[in-house]
Write a structure and sequence with these properties.
CATH class of one domain in chain A: Alpha Beta
Largest sheet of chain A: 8 strands, mixed
Largest sheet of chain B: 7 strands, mixed
Shape of chain B: elongated
Structural class of chain A: alpha/beta
Oligomer: heterotrimer
Radius of gyration of chain A: 22 Å
CATH architecture of one domain in chain A: 2-Layer Sandwich
Strand content of chain B: 25-35%
Shape of chain A: globular
CATH superfamily of one domain in chain A: D-Amino Acid Oxidase, subunit A, domain 2
Helix content of chain A: 25-40%
Distance between the termini of chain A: 43 Å
Distance between the termini of chain B: 97 Å
Structural class of chain B: alpha+beta
Strand order of the largest sheet of chain A: 5-6-4-14-15-16-13-17
Number of helices of chain B: 22
């Protein structure tokens, strides 16, 4: 944790077993994980969205570039959006070289996060199985495995016998409709405690001087010189942010929201290739741990992992209907249960305890929109679809570099907004179209 | 605490003549019909039922109902069974959960000694160094997972679903809910009444007062005489969009658990109230129970909950519990009245039993502490409808604020009152529900006017003129002057919550996530309000300021089996399938279709087609029957090539692109008559191309006259391929001159085949051989196939499957959409650039294809490995020399039986697309091999002489 | 489960229909600039509120139609009159 504390000349109280015992003996409370400060009238940069992306961006701005006069604003509490609603799976087994390189860097950052941030984010490197039920799916798995190997990422295609050894709960018998023909096995994949990532970044950023402002809703982005009304739009530049707690002047605004990315960007006069869809998830009651790995089936639109608390966490594909309502649906749980029992018929007596949903911003090529926009000083880190959590550390690192240097880092160049003008989309869509 | 069975109680639900023998924790026990598992065990003197999650503290009965966090047990292969709710059955094998090694000697209870260090969220602050030990720590932490055990051999038992369209659904059959159901039914509504407990009556069931018993008898009689459908042991688990309700029925005679889906016009929420535990030191000790638990134990199951009791009461339910205890001979050591600012400070005792209660500085010996500290309003169904309930500190609970008009609350959710007041409110709610349901029904029917003309005007939306229920004042009792457990399922104490709030986790959602309070099996039913209160206290704010968590579905957990129901995963087979099965077929799954892959030796099948003749069943081929004068315009719009001058009897190949220029589908379309065409699509595109066509016709060109009928499954499709195909087809065909001059390649005829009239016969194929494709009416498909097989015995006819066809199409270099193309493959990349007619006015994707024509694009090319015996994997990457730079990939690869060498199709960067270019293919083994890009796609018979034969 | 007012079949569970997304006009392919065409392909208003959108009654009358839905509350308004066959075009 080299960077933390350097800026403010103080260090956060260290988390450790010894500190737990010491405070336990004395009955001391731990100090606040992040400070509650007044909203200032001016910052060097304002990050909109207090989720993993926004907090990571702020953290790396402070740590890697010494930019600490930064406010992260969120209309609710930190981690209230997709950061706290996702199923916390991390992996790097993407299809395109640019996707693999990007997510592999993210996985590296996740692996060192507990020590970097001095908080146990419970990175559980338990492996990740993507099942193939058809020839076509198996071909895509092979494709991903080959691309992964070329990028130095550990992925291979394994057969039903090996699958059964890794996850005995899976039905690898001769199944009429969804036989398990093979799987892409990705040992470095796993799950992380998503809330701890939020808190860890917030705590570390806070100690370097970044301010976290909850219940601070952005009402408008103040621009000048642009083609559109009120100086917004292409050719303009950002001068500030209007919030429910007053105006802030700032030359840089980074949009790190999910679900509301289009609405926030519209405040700066920037249109995005995004539609917003709910992604639903559900959790069962706990039972003793029996599923040691993450299991995904593209054909059945389901992913499954078991927490250390014994609950099975289920996710699925985004809802087909664009929506900002996150009330969830019964049919989601019905389909989910049907599909899960196709894979693991032995768990029909487990009970579904809770369902919830979050908002995903879907782009036409299943890849994010990152970097600069036609409005000077307005940057976006949006359009994450269902992949946002996996990408948070590297996104923060790269967005911070973009802000600090004014140049687009190589790792995120493929994800520029301008690709939708030139028609040169990212090939993850290739995987999606072949895989389904 | 010593519980025991009392003499007969007037309200009891047990049948003392029906003794049930069962096992608990390895020992034999007896109970009665009507007992829950917990009541039977309590009557037998058992008082420890589980160990707590983190500290493994002994836990006994708390609420004696479904929500009791301490009564989760394993019954056979069924984990997490609510022993406070599940009825006892003879022969049950009931075991405790989360104990190690046993219920009474639990080694992990030692964790309790370290409780001050194992504060909520402690695991975020440790186990970080050394990093390599974390996987071990994780495994140890995972052994603390609570809950039962899954037997992976558990069968998916019978489950079925039911669909209902009731006018009014009433959730909860207490006095208000029953009256609501009765009144709605009396007003003509179809009513479903759903009760979570095993019988209707709500709190009247366990009230020993004469008035309550009389009211219950009257309500039951009225229900019996009404048309209301009553479901007991069933729960409305969720309210979704437009009053779509999920209801789980746990007592269906056949289904283990049944999911009912109901589109209710109006939902009445009448779940009653849930008694809230009180937080003080030792509040989780066995012997501390809620007033409801005491009354249920005594009045429903005749169980004496203790010998000497302290009653802490702040309301009339607590008073009633005290009276019940007194009546059945429990000594009342003290009554502490919460309404007089008196508090209980701690419950003390041994590890397993209560011995004394400390209140107001006095220590009172007792083996039972009954607590009546207030209520949680289970507003879940209202939350799911978008309501945000508001806290009323004077009544110390939440109330509905503004639910939508088709969701009404009554009973305890709506307020307090005497039984007759609750009944009157329920009845008024039922009448209002019936009126509104009639209006909703009228509106829905009006929207369906084409099918069922609706009469009269829509009834006015009935205003809510119910006399509101009052709100009894209630002291705000959440925590005493000591700290105790807030969430018993999760072992989260008030101290943990205060510490979390001090640490900055000071909104209810943050605190919940950090401490896991309210995340356990009862999902906050018991602990949410106390959680909020603890945070409010730490922040010096009110409960209303802190707000509450959002209750999410389901209201009560339900099994995955019930949600899944019977598994309906249809598969499709052609009418020829029985023949395939009788002839040793190996099948392959393609979407929902089960298709012949081969019949033992695909290479031999290929050789037979190339030398004799073979039959393949290609029924899944998409087929759209098009009729109307504007078909050429439609084809010009959807295909990239031109269709204006296709004569009758002729067939043409076409490629479709989406509006972004990406290849969507391909196939041939033939003109059968002046205004009648048949379009074929890929098998996987059969459904999506149909919708694509309809979309263009309906939304962009609604003035065009074209009718589209999908006929994929109306015909079987048989391709007869090989040099002897004409000879074979000629033997069974009438009415068509098959000579090459009369019926050349790329034409279509109407024919009678094997006596079956109305077959379409096409001179097309995917194999590169002389081919006739016969589309015969499905019902005659098997007959036509068998007739061809019989007629061709001397010609060496044999079947071939998809694998043989794939080999032959690869020999011919035909690409497959979705295998050789992907989601970014633009039209010109297929090599079919000449088929993209940019001089047409308009067609799907034209602008992108026009711009793409000026770009250099990745190309689909034929590739041959320099070593003819090496077949690369489909997905093998094409790289630059010894680097890892990707320049393309192999998309199809096979050993060609015809050529005796390996053949491939691949996609490569433009720089490699020219014939003769050497490329490096990286095999899965890691070996890099050299290969050559071919001049044209066809590895075999590039001039196409055989197929024209 | 949304109840979608199909002009021909009446209110139907959304599972019976296919969602067609935001209604937007197709530019004239003869004159569209790359920017206009790609705007048609990729850019959407995606409002949190009233949205005009297309539905296809896949399991019923097999007609496309357009109406307005509030993406925050899932209310519908301005459905086509019963029997309307204009296929979503005003």
């Amino acid at each position: 944790m080299t960077g933390i504390g350097r800026r403010l000349g103080r260090r956060p109280p260290k988390y450790s077993a010894a500190a737990l015992v010491w405070r336990g003996m004395r009955g001391d409370y731990w100090p606040r994980i992040w400070r509650d400060t007044e909203l200032k009238r001016s910052y060097d940069a304002v990050v909109i969205g207090g989720g993993v992306h926004g907090l990571a961006t702020a953290y790396y701005l402070a740590r890697n570039h010494g930019i600490t006069n930064v406010a992260v604003v969120d209309k609710a509490y930190l981690g209230s959006g997709a950061s706290g609603r996702n199923t916390a799976i991390v992996r790097a087994n993407y299809l395109t070289p640019e996707g693999v390189a990007f997510y592999d860097r993210s996985l590296q950052l996740y692996n060192s996060m507990a020590l970097d941030l001095n908080i146990n984010v419970m990175m559980s490197e338990r492996g990740h199985l993507t099942l193939a039920h058809t020839d076509a799916a198996l071909r895509t798995m092979n494709w991903r495995a080959e691309v992964n190997k070329l990028q130095g990422v550990n992925s291979s295609v394994i057969g039903p016998d090996e699958i059964k050894k890794i996850a005995p709960a899976l039905d690898t018998s001769d199944h009429p409709r969804y036989p398990i023909l093979g799987a892409l096995h990705h040992p470095p994949g796993g799950v992380v405690r998503h809330d701890a990532v939020v808190w860890g970044y917030a705590r570390a950023a806070d100690y370097m001087g970044v301010e976290m402002h909850q219940k601070t809703e952005v009402l408008d982005i103040l621009c000048e010189g642009g083609d559109g009304p009120d100086g917004k739009g292409p050719g303009g530049k950002v001068v500030g942010v209007r919030t429910n707690r007053g105006d802030i002047s700032t030359p840089v605004v980074v949009n790190c929201t999910a679900g509301w990315a289009g609405l926030i960007s519209a405040m700066a006069g920037v249109r995005l290739p995004i539609t917003t869809h709910p992604l639903q998830a559900a959790v069962t009651e706990p039972v003793k741990v029996f599923l040691p790995t993450v299991v995904v089936s593209g054909s059945l639109h389901v992913y499954i992992s078991q927490t250390d608390r014994g609950e099975l966490v289920f996710g699925a594909a985004v809802d087909a209907v664009a929506n900002y309502s996150i009330r969830g649906s019964l049919e989601f749980t019905e389909e989910l249960a049907g599909h899960v029992l196709e894979l693991m018929p032995g768990i029909s007596r487990m009970r579904l305890l809770r369902q919830w949903s979050g908002l995903c911003d879907m782009t036409p090529d299943y890849s994010p929109v990152m970097g600069f926009t036609p409005v000077d000083g307005f940057l976006v880190d949006v359009g994450w679809g269902t992949y946002g959590f996996k990408a948070a550390p590297v996104s923060g690192e790269q967005m911070a570099e973009a802000v600090a240097t004014g140049r687009t880092p190589k790792l995120i160049a493929p994800f520029a907004l301008s690709r939708f003008d030139s028609g040169e989309l990212v090939g993850e869509k290739g995987a999606a179209s072949v895989g389904h | 605490m010593t519980m025991s069975r009392l003499g007969a109680q007037p309200t009891e639900v047990i049948d003392r003549t029906a003794k049930l023998r069962f096992r608990w924790n390895g020992k034999r026990f007896d109970g009665f019909e009507g007992d829950t598992i917990a009541s039977a065990l309590a009557a037998a003197g058992e008082h420890v039922f589980s160990r707590s999650m983190k500290y493994h503290r002994p836990r006994g009965i708390l609420t004696a109902d479904y929500w009791d966090p301490n009564l989760l047990v394993q019954v056979g292969d069924d984990p997490n069974v609510r022993a406070g709710h599940r009825l006892l059955e003879a022969g049950m094998d009931v075991r405790p959960q989360n104990v190690w090694p046993s219920l009474h000697r639990d080694i992990k209870a030692a964790n309790g000694l370290f409780g001050r260090f194992l504060t909520a969220g402690f695991y975020y602050k440790t186990f970080m160094r050394p990093a390599w030990l974390w996987p071990t720590y994780e495994r140890v932490l995972a052994t603390f997972a609570p809950g039962g055990k899954i037997d992976l051999d558990t069968p998916h038992r019978y489950h079925d679903k039911r669909y209902m369209h009731p006018d009014v659904v009433v959730a909860g059959a207490g006095p208000a809910g029953i009256e609501a159901a009765l009144a709605a039914a009396a007003a003509g509504a179809r009513v479903l009444l759903v009760e979570h407990e095993h019988a209707v009556g709500g709190h009247l069931r366990y009230s020993s007062s004469d008035s309550a018993r009389a009211a219950l008898a009257e309500l039951r009689a009225a229900l019996d005489a009404s048309d209301v459908e009553v479901l007991t042991n069933s729960t409305v688990t969720g309210r979704y969009e437009d009053n779509w309700l999920g209801i789980v029925q746990r007592n269906h005679p056949i289904a283990v658990e049944r999911l009912i889906k109901a589109r209710a016009k109006v939902l009445v929420a009448a779940p009653g109230l849930i008694e809230r535990p009180y937080v003080f030191s030792g509040n989780d000790r066995p012997g501390v129970i809620t007033s409801g638990a005491a009354r249920r134990l005594i009045n429903l199951w005749g169980v004496k909950p203790g010998e000497r009791a302290v009653v802490f009461t702040a309301n009339s339910d607590g008073d009633a519990a005290a009276a019940d205890l007194d009546r059945v001979g429990v000594e009342i050591a003290a009554i502490i009245d919460g309404r007089d600012q008196k508090r209980v400070s701690s419950a003390e005792g041994s590890s397993r039993a209560l011995q004394a209660v400390v209140a107001g500085g006095n220590r009172i010996e007792a083996d039972l502490l009954v607590v009546a500290a207030g209520w949680t309003a289970p507003t879940s169904l209202l939350n799911m409808a978008g309501d945000r309930p508001v806290h009323d500190p004077a009544a110390a609970r939440f109330f509905p604020s503004d639910p939508p008009g088709n969701v009404l609350a009554t009973g305890g959710l709506a307020g307090d009152g005497r039984i007759d007041e609750l009944r009157a409110h329920g009845a008024a709610t039922g009448r209002l529900a019936a009126q509104r349901a009639a209006a909703v029904a009228h509106r829905l029917q009006a929207l369906t006017a084409r099918a069922r003309p609706v009469e009269g005007n829509e009834p006015a939306w009935a205003p809510d003129e119910r006399t509101p229920l009052g709100r009894d004042p209630h002291p705000e009792l959440y925590r005493s002057d000591t700290h105790g457990m807030v969430d018993l399922s999760e072992d989260v104490g008030s101290k943990d919550l205060v510490a979390a709030a001090r640490e900055g986790y000071d909104s209810v959602e943050l605190a919940k996530r950090y401490t896991t309070a309210t995340m356990g099996p009862s999902q906050g039913k018991l602990e949410t309000v106390n959680t909020v209160a603890a945070i409010a206290e730490a922040r010096g704010e009110t409960i209303a300021q802190v707000g509450t968590t959002v209750w999410r579905p389901p209201y009560a957990p339900l099994t995955l089996g019930a949600l899944a129901g019977r598994v309906f995963e249809p598969v499709r087979v052609s009418s020829i399938h029985p023949w395939h099965e009788a002839n040793g077929v190996s099948t392959i799954l393609a979407g929902q279709w089960i298709r012949p892959d081969h019949y033992g030796d695909p290479a031999a099948e290929v050789r037979n087609v190339r030398t004799n003749v073979g039959l393949i069943d290609v029924t899944p081929l998409g087929k759209l029957d098009l009729r109307g004068p504007d078909i050429p315009k439609l084809l010009n719009l959807l295909y990239t090539n031109k269709w204006s001058k296709l004569p009758v009897g002729k067939v043409r190949y076409g490629m479709m692109c989406a509006e972004d220029g990406v290849v969507l589908d391909d196939g041939v379309t033939g003109r059968l008559a002046e205004d009648h065409y048949l379009m074929t699509t890929t098998s996987s595109g059969a459904g999506s191309v149909w919708e694509w066509v309809e979309n263009w016709l309906q939304t962009e060109r609604p003035d065009w006259k074209v009718h589209v009928t999908p006929v994929t499954t109306a015909y079987v499709s048989i391709n007869v391929a090989g040099p002897k195909a004409r000879e074979l087809v000629g033997r069974v065909t009438e009415g068509v001159d098959l000579s090459p001059e009369a019926f050349p390649y790329m034409e279509v005829r109407l024919a009678t085949v094997a006596g079956v009239a109305g077959c379409f016969m096409w001179r097309i194929g995917f194999t590169g051989e002389l081919s006739f494709e016969i589309h015969a009416p499905s019902g005659h498909g098997l007959h036509v196939w068998e007739a061809l097989m019989d007629a061709g015995q001397d010609l060496g006819v044999g079947p071939f499957g998809l694998e043989g066809q794939r080999i032959m199409r690869l020999e011919k270099g035909h690409f497959i959409v979705g295998q050789d193309t992907d989601g970014l493959t633009l039209g010109p990349s297929t090599g079919l650039g000449p088929l993209i007619k940019l001089d047409k006015d308009d067609f799907a994707g034209k602008p992108e294809l026009a711009w793409a024509a000026d770009r250099s694009l990745p190309m689909i090319v034929a590739i041959q490995t320099d070593d003819p015996n090496v077949v690369p994997e489909e997905a093998a990457q094409i790289v630059r020399g010894n680097t890892n730079e990707i320049l393309g990939r192999i998309t199809s690869a096979r050993m060609s039986p015809t050529l005796g060498r390996s053949i491939c199709l691949g996609q490569v960067e433009p720089e490699l697309a020219a014939g003769g270019t050497k490329v490096t293919v990286l095999l899965a083994s890691g070996e890099r091999i050299s290969a050559t890009v071919m001049d044209h796609h066809a590895h075999f018979d590039p001039a196409g002489e055989r197929l024209r034969g | 489960m949304l109840l979608v007012p199909c002009p021909n079949c009446g209110p139907r569970n959304s599972a019976d229909l296919r969602y067609g997304g935001e209604s937007h006009a197709r530019p004239d392919p003869a004159t569209a600039t790359p920017q206009q065409w790609r705007g048609y392909l990729y850019l959407r208003d995606n409002p949190a509120g009233w949205l005009r959108e297309n539905w296809y009654c896949r399991s019923g009358c097999r007609r496309w139609f357009a109406l307005e839905r509030n993406t925050a509350t899932n209310e519908f308004r301005n459905p086509p009159a019963p029997g309307d066959k204009r296929g979503g075009k005003a």
